Amino acid sequence: MLHLFAGMNINTGLLLIIALIFVLCYEAINGFHDTANAVVTVIYTRTMHAQLAVIMSGIFNFFGVLLGGLSVAYTIVHLLPTDLLLNIGSCHGLIMIFSMLLTAIIWNLSTWYLGLPTSSSHTLISAIIGIALTNTILTDSSLINVLNVSKIISVFSSLVISPIIGLLISGGLIFILRHCYKNSKKHVRIHMTPSQRKKIDGKKKPPFWTRVILVLSAMGVSYSHGSNDGQKGIGLIMLVLISVVPAGFVVNIDASNYEITRTHDAIINLENYCNKHAVYLQVLHQLNKSDISKSTDKDNKEDKKFHCNSINELDTIKQTKILFDNLQNYDSLPVSKKIKIRYLLLCMADTIDKFVKLPDINVSDKNLLNKLKKDLLCTVEYAPLWIIITVALAIGIGTMIGWRRVAATIGNKIGKRGMTYAQGMCAQITAAISIGIASYTGMPVSTTHILSSSVAGAMLADGGGLHWRTIKNIIMAWILTIPICILLSGLVYLIMLKLLTT
Q1: CA-angle at 434, arms to 377 and 62, nearest 5°
Q2: 0.85 surpassed by pTM
Q3: % of the chain with per-residue pLDDT over 70
Q4: How far apart are CA 497 and CA 306, in angstroms?
Q5: Confidence band (pLDDT; 50, 70, 90) for 187?
């Protein structure tokens, strides 16, 4: 691993260290915020001691990051415009990354200090939008060209819908529990609060099987959180490393011959598809012509930047085929060719995304194209094991240090009455399953929003009532996150541009 950083000068090394500290701070604060949700129910139902619950959550967060894959990591990365991803090593690209991270750290740390459960996903995506808006104003370009609008709409949709689903499912589970086993002793016990159980049964802990379910569901929430939110840090670190140390990270230099062959086969199959469906290429060319005419003047001024060839995709494919002919490994290639391979593969993936959006593309073609995209990017969308472990440690340590503030809000202040065992179980089961499904499908969601809404849904369905002042504060924090982070990231980006490029 260390040989990848050999020959780095002091300035580059310092820049890399600062950038990595920023990302790891972001993930640690993420642990403060979101992972507090995983332990709140087991602590406030007295299922586990606080210290043990936090350690357990940190461990399962670690394994969630380690084993959760990379689909969410690169969903976040591809919210950034393709041109930025192609030129991420430029000064502007680095300033964008720093501005995005600084904004996320400031807002997440502020809301954690106030004990407000806000979403790190909302924060990060809003920061990306703010930077893109500022960049649009400065360069006089189209927002649609600068920002990956379709992906942002898709991600925001999942972030908005998931808490509503959490509230409904959790409330539904409570309703089922209330109307099942009505006359059984177990029914009475699971709907007790810890204080009621101590008063009636003289016991501090919940019933055995209730306790088992609470512990297992808490483990599930922690694991799911790591596999979803933890991946964002992995994607950000990869952006940093690609921009600062392109020689070692622009492509996976440890890629096997099988993976390189898989990419090569995907290039050939995409070429065959383009030749077979030339009419689709013509439609894309018509759509791209207006964008190209608007950006020609800027491209002449910024000819050092790499841009995708939106008029001759087949030429891009042929260039890539030549680079991959008889290629056995990436390590033997000079840096310039590694960078070019990354550029070309990203452009081909961008072409596939445009194909998929065409109204005439049928479902089988969409599935084929999505598979080709996955094969094309298998040596570009990757993360070394040491990065995954580093992010896992950061989020785990963050959990153990700063969980208490946000946990107190969710455990004590959402409902008017104490949390019952049934409410804790329903909220955690809902959150664990919802976040797990989102991670599997590659959609970033908010652990905070899902679990908070699940707790609220369970308490509403149980007739316990809510502290509307607390709910109002939480909702206000959720709503304000987006505009404040958009404005803050834009301002930070503008200030850093003035300081570092003049």
Answers
A1: 65
A2: no
A3: 80
A4: 21
A5: low
Closest CA to 63 of 173, 216, 190, 227: 227
DSSP assignment string, 274-299: HHHTHHHHHHHHHHHHHHHHHHHHHH
Residue type, 121: S
Round the average pLDDT of the chain to a whole number and report it. 79
- The structure tokens listed for 427 are 């909220």
User: CA Rg, the chain, in Å?
Assistant: 25
For residues 60 and 282, give the distance between their C-alpha atoms in angstroms, rounded to a whole number: 50
Residue 187: name the closest of 200, 203, 176 by CA: 176
Distance, CA of 283 to CA of 273 (rounded, Å): 15
Kindly list the distances between the CA atom of residue 452 and the CA atoms of 167, 291, 474, in Å, as whole numbers in the listed order: 8, 43, 9
| CA–CA distance, 427 with 435 (Å, rounded to integer) | 12
What are the residue boundaries of the structural domains of the chain, listed by start?
Answer: 9-247+384-500, 252-376
CB 60 within 8 Å of CB 223: yes
The first and second tokens of residue 474, run together, are 């939480």
> Could you give the 3-state DSSP secondary structure of residue 466?
strand
Q: By mean pLDDT, which of 52-66, 109-123, 151-165, 292-306 is the weakest? A: 292-306
Separation of alpha carbons 425 and 213, rounded Å: 7
Residue ranges of the alpha helices (H) in 45-193?
A: 50-67, 71-77, 82-86, 91-113, 120-139, 143-146, 149-179, 185-190
Distances (CA, A) of 391 to 62, 71, 112: 8, 16, 20
CA-wise closest residue to 449 among 468, 469, 427, 418: 427
Q: Token pair for residue 134?
A: 């500022």
**Which of 402, 417, 438 is closest to 33 using CA atoms?**
402
Q: Quick check: 210 and 419 in contact, CB under 8 A?
A: no
Contact predicate 399/221, CB 8 Å:
no
Percent of the chain topping pLDDT 90: 11
DSSP code of residue 5: G
Distance of CA 412 to the CA centre of its chain: 29
